[in-house]
Recover the amino acids of this structure.
């Protein structure tokens, strides 16, 4: 029912008025003005939004300037916002309240005691429904982290790993504050946010303690706020940012060893594709990138390990893959390679034919020793005898080929070509883009006694770990 307040809430509603005006103009606010409040986008094309008050008191505002009070609501009340040709129509418990030509805001008395249910989940704080269809959960950054840290690294992670994730998630969110309509998404396109629902579904005591113990702490590198990207597992080694997403090298996003990843079940993985499946992957990706033409039947898969600086990627990740057919070809670069090939990461090698025994995913090949045994070697450790009996390191040669049961492999500029009518087997490691923090690496380090600060300096220390500082968010 409509809440009839008998206690004095003048101060609250005055503050709410200011917040409502701010919500309608957030896209114009400077980054610094939003340090303690984050806008999380939950939907992008909403036409009929329903909110049920779970706890606390809310004021619903709209009107021509998005600051007119439409109603006040308390626990049990249902607020419905329906998008129309111009603006919204707002209902309370099925009764039409009126129209709003601009954004509709549901303003919480406070973030700690007020929550709404939306789209099957409970969320703390305020909401804003924008005329462009975005539905935003607007709340204190620290309460937001209550619904992020456990979802990202697990609720049973060691204490120092939880603290690590709290600082990383806060740094990531702070870095993206100041977007046009919202700051972050609630999915893994930003970082996973489950709202108050996940707080209640799990024993989140350790998560809340980790957030509270690191309150307001973020990372700075050489004075600049760190874009704290992270992935599930690096497969043994993280990668330089420019080799995964392009762009300029970022000094704190350098590839480093991540040895504790080996304790993760996806440290190594393997998939085998038939020619028909490779044809389907190619055609699907062509549609995705809107590339016209016919692919035909699968002929060859080319992959390159060439880094942005002309050498090879530090972790052994693929930077380019081309599926070649009888009628055409399609190429994916950097992190898009795993999208095209449907893989967990770009840290992989390719052989042809049936599935083979999984080997170390970081650039290993097998050579026939003098005693007739097969021995595993890294490409960097193999030498070839060229013209004039000149001995050269295989990885340094501009043109070298090896033929085996796996097909024809070229080491030209770090490129491998697999020609096979039997399809290909892809052997790789890790899960995710592999830049920045490895979450399973952090869990392993924490379990081995490393502190959150030591973990962060390992993964984000980059060219000079002394330049990485953990300090309060400005």
């Amino acid at each position: 029912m409509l809440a009839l307040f008998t206690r004095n809430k003048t101060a609250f509603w005055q503050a709410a008025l200011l917040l409502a005006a701010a919500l309608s103009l957030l896209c114009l606010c400077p980054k610094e003005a939003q340090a303690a409040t984050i806008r999380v986008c939950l939907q992008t094309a909403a036409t009929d939004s329903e909110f049920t008050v779970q706890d606390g008191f809310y004021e619903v505002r709209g009107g021509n300037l998005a600051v007119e009070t439409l109603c006040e609501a308390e626990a049990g009340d249902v607020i419905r916002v329906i998008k129309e040709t111009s603006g919204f129509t707002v209902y309370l418990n099925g009764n039409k309240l009126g129209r709003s030509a601009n954004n509709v805001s549901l303003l919480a008395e406070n973030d700690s005691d007020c929550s709404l249910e939306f789209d099957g989940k409970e969320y703390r704080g305020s909401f804003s429904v924008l005329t462009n269809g975005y539905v935003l959960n607007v709340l204190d950054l620290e309460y937001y982290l209550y619904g992020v840290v456990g979802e990202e690294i697990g609720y049973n992670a060691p204490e120092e790993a939880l603290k690590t994730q709290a600082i990383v998630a806060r740094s990531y969110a702070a870095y993206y504050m100041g977007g046009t309509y919202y700051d972050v998404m609630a999915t893994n396109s930003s970082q996973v946010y489950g709202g108050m629902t996940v707080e209640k579904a799990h024993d989140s005591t350790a998560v809340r303690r980790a957030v509270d113990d690191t309150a307001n702490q973020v990372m700075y590198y050489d004075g600049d706020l760190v874009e704290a990207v992270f992935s599930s597992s690096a497969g043994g080694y993280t990668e330089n940012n420019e080799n995964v997403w392009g762009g300029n090298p970022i000094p704190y996003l350098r590839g480093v060893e991540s040895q504790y990843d080996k304790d993760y079940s996806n440290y190594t993985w393997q998939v085998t594709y038939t020619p028909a499946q490779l044809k389907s992957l190619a055609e699907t990706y062509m549609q995705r990138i809107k590339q016209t033409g016919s692919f035909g039947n699968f002929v060859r898969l080319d992959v390159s390990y060439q880094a942005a600086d002309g050498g090879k990627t530090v972790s052994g990740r693929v930077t380019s893959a081309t599926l070649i057919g009888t009628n055409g070809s399609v190429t994916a670069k950097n992190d898009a390679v795993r999208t095209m090939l449907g893989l967990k990461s770009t840290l992989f090698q390719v052989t042809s034919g049936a599935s083979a025994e999984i080997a170390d995913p970081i650039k290993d090949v097998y050579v026939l020793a003098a005693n007739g045994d097969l021995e595993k070697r890294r490409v960097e450790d193999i030498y070839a005898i060229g013209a004039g009996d000149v001995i050269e390191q295989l990885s340094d040669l501009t043109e070298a080929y090896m033929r085996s049961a796996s097909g024809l492999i070229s080491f030209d500029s770090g490129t491998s070509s697999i020609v096979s009518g039997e399809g290909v087997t892809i052997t790789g490691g890790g899960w995710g883009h592999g830049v920045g923090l490895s979450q399973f690496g952090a869990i392993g380090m924490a379990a081995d006694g490393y502190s959150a600060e030591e973990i962060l300096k390992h993964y984000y220390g980059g060219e000079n770990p002394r330049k990485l500082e953990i300090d309060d968010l400005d």
